[in-house]
């Protein structure tokens, strides 16, 4: 099957999974709020973020192994694939032990992190359920998912994911409605994760049976290079986790669990929107990884420019939609008592956009294997984010935390990562990239402002939200087309889309 067909199949299956998850997740969340309340919602968000930190033990091994799988998958080198997967399996077993050790070391400090009382729940029991959830990601065959992703067959994961999400969501609703049990809700997540990994593993064993046929090992010299890549990828992963997880932890300590609960509703919206857009970039990443292994830098650079434009269109348009529609949606969904300020919505929309660009840059960097170049950049991003979050939350509340995350992203990822990619990946100057992306942000700002002005007269009802969506979508389509039609990559993108539609 060609790269294009694999990419299309990945996108279609993943989008079906995202839409199904979206509908069921909002059903589960509505029932969760009505039965358990906003404080449990905040507690759930805090524990998720704590275990995002513990998952740092993964060291970025998945990204580094995925990069090394592109070439042998392309050339059908079974011995090489077998050696990499054997090493990967052993690495994940070690990682599981590290996570367990770090979890036990963290246990005495849980009460210091979560200072607000939560009636009817033992936070230590919740803690160990999350330990089990995190370990189930690295045990029970999860390493095999990386092989499917590198081979552009992520649609298999999405196919099984569709079955699992239906069963999981219905079971969660049953437990919440009849038993109002937070513990039962969490246990379902653990069991569903194990079941999904098992089902995917069976498919991998069937389609790649040869990975157990060879007794190949990786030589010491390559292992040294791989560990250098792991360390560099680990630093990038720290940065990603800190940007994702710090907000809730800082808010919990300085503001309280209730605010985290309100915030988590907006995070649910942005997370599902990311899940809706990410299949496109994930498919492009695997395609570009295989493309780079076979084509010239110039051809790869043209694909890079086109994908950069596609990222702007997707995340720029979605960010404008978030700004215009988030509070309307929250009001219609669960009521205006769960609203946060319009300034907060503006900041979270901007953060969403910069996260999208950051994801694109990370995907390209990983596809090129650029792990070690400027590997200490993430440390700077972490320091900026932590310091600004702690300072600004005390002056601007939740808006200060989001502003700190944006500042850390712009001052580091958005400036430094393009230099790495252009210098080491394409051997080109970076100034043209910066100019074009400043232009993109300007176009997004004008489009967002016009959309905001035109939708101010609509009320906070379902019909008002629907009208706002239609008007905003129309403004985005018109202004983005007018503002981008002169770009060569826009014409290339149109051509590529037409080809895909024909196929």
Automatic annotation (TrEMBL):
**What's an example GO cellular component term for this entry?**
plasma membrane
Membrane topology, from the record: Multi-pass membrane protein
Q: Which domain of life is it from?
A: Bacteria
Give yes or no: UniProt keyword Cell membrane: yes
Q: Which UniProt keywords apply?
A: Cell membrane, Membrane, Transmembrane, Transmembrane helix
Question: Any idea where this protein resides?
Answer: Cell membrane
Major localization listed first in the record, in broad terms = membrane
The residues that cross the membrane are 12-38, 50-70, 91-114, 120-140, 160-177, 183-200, 306-326, 338-357, 378-396, 402-426, 438-455, 461-487
> What PANTHER family does UniProt report for this protein, alphabetically?
PSMA PROTEIN, PST FAMILY PREDICTED COLANIC ACID TRANSPORTER
Q: What protein does this entry describe?
A: Membrane protein involved in the export of O-antigen and teichoic acid
Native species of this protein? Alkalibacterium pelagium
């Amino acid at each position: 099957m060609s790269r294009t067909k694999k990419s299309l199949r990945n996108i279609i299956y993943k989008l079906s999974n995202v839409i199904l998850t979206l509908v069921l997740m909002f059903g589960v969340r509505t029932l969760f709020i009505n039965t358990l309340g906003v404080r449990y919602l905040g507690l759930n968000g805090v524990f998720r973020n704590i275990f995002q930190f513990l998952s740092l033990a993964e060291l970025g091994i998945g990204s580094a192994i995925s990069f090394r799988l592109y070439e042998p998958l392309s050339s059908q080198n079974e011995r090489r694939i077998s050696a990499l997967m054997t090493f990967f399996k052993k690495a994940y077993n070690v990682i599981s032990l590290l996570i367990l050790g770090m979890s036990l070391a963290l246990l005495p400090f849980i009460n210091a992190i979560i200072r607000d009382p939560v009636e009817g729940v033992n936070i230590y029991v919740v803690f160990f359920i999350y330990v089990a959830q995190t370990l189930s990601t690295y045990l029970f065959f999860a390493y095999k998912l990386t092989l499917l992703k590198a081979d552009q067959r992520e649609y298999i994961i999405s196919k099984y994911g569709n079955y699992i999400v239906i069963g999981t969501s219905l079971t969660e609703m049953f437990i919440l409605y009849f038993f109002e049990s937070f513990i039962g809700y969490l246990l379902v997540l653990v069991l569903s994760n194990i079941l999904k990994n098992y089902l995917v593993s069976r498919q991998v064993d069937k389609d790649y049976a040869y990975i157990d046929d060879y007794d190949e090992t990786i030589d010491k010299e390559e292992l040294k290079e791989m560990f250098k890549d792991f360390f560099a990828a680990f630093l990038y992963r720290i940065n990603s986790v800190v940007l994702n997880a710090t907000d809730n932890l800082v808010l919990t300590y300085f503001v309280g669990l209730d605010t985290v609960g309100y915030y988590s509703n907006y995070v649910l919206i942005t997370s599902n929107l990311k899940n809706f857009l990410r299949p496109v970039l994930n498919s492009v990443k695997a395609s570009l990884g295989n493309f780079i292994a076979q084509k010239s830098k110039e051809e790869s650079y043209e694909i890079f420019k086109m994908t950069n434009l596609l990222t702007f269109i997707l995340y720029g348009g979605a960010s404008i939609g978030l700004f215009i529609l988030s509070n309307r949606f929250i009001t219609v969904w669960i009521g205006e008592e769960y609203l946060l300020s319009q300034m907060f919505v503006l900041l979270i929309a901007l953060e969403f956009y910069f996260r999208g660009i950051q994801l694109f840059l990370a995907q390209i960097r990983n596809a090129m294997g650029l792990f070690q170049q400027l590997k200490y950049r993430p440390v700077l991003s972490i320091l900026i984010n932590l310091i600004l979050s702690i300072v600004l939350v005390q002056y601007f509340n939740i808006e200060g935390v989001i502003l700190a995350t944006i500042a850390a992203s712009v001052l580091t990822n958005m400036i430094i990562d393009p230099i790495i990619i252009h210098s080491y990946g394409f051997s080109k100057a970076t100034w043209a990239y910066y100019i074009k992306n400043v232009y993109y942000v300007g176009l997004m700002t004008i489009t967002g402002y016009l959309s905001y002005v035109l939708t101010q007269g609509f009320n906070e009802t379902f019909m008002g939200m629907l009208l706002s969506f239609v008007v905003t979508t129309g403004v985005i389509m018109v202004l983005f087309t007018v503002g981008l039609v002169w770009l060569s990559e826009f014409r290339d993108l149109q051509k590529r889309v037409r080809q895909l539609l024909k196929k």
